[in-house]
Amino acid sequence: MENINLTDEQKKSENSRIYVLFYSFFLIPFMIAVFGAVFFLLFKFVTYETNDVEELLNQVKIGSASKRWQSAFELAKVLNNPDSNPLSSSFKDQLSSAYERSIHDDPLVRSYLAMAMGATQDTTFGNPLINGLEDKSLETRIAAIQALGMIKYAAAVNPISQLIKTADNESERLSATISLGMIGDDSAVPHLVKLLEDEEANIRWDAAIALAKMGNDSGAYIIEGLLDRDYLNKFNEIDPVEQNKVLMVAIKTASILFDKRFEDNLILLSKNDKDLSIRDAAIKALEKNYSNGTNKL
Fold it and tell me: Is residue 267 part of a domain?
């Protein structure tokens, strides 16, 4: 009669098979799941973002080099949200202090802190930002210029105008010109009028647009040119996409500043332009301010 009991050798073989099944179907998948969960939690921790301005500013103060500029960037983004909560006086003081201390930090940190202050549209930050116009870094100077325009700080008109005279970088001078227009104070008008004769076309254009938005027609002849594709075609550095943007801005400006000199070009654009969005914008501008022009359509 055959022995039905398993031998020691058979028992070892059976146990070995059970261990293989255990590792294959339970332990290894379990370990993969555990490591996956740990990796996910670490990833969430590293990439954690918050909308709390106090916490973001604190990270700017004490975070690592990469964390500081990222937190400053997030802070600017959060404060740019029109639905953000009102800022306390304590927070404003801390933000100003952080900006002043960032003078020797990564330019990205200082630049984003300037944009964060600009996003608040609060003139409380005017003086620290004016100090930023003296920075050695071009990047942080431009950020300060833009932020002063965003908060519409009238006291910055003279220092920004002086900067336009002395700066040798076109981007900086252009940002300063745009900022004067954003500030919109009457004291900026004489400075902008002088810029209508600047050697750089972009600066002439933005000075004319800034003046028009302030109700001043000194640069109307320049805007008249911006409404003409033949004129814009003379600038080889402007690609078709940029050309359409320039035309759209000029049309919107013509809607703000009524001037008969714009009418003929608006009619041509409304009838013949190759871009339908430009045609539509020109038609709307004519309908808004130029009743005679609509009769000619």
Answer: yes
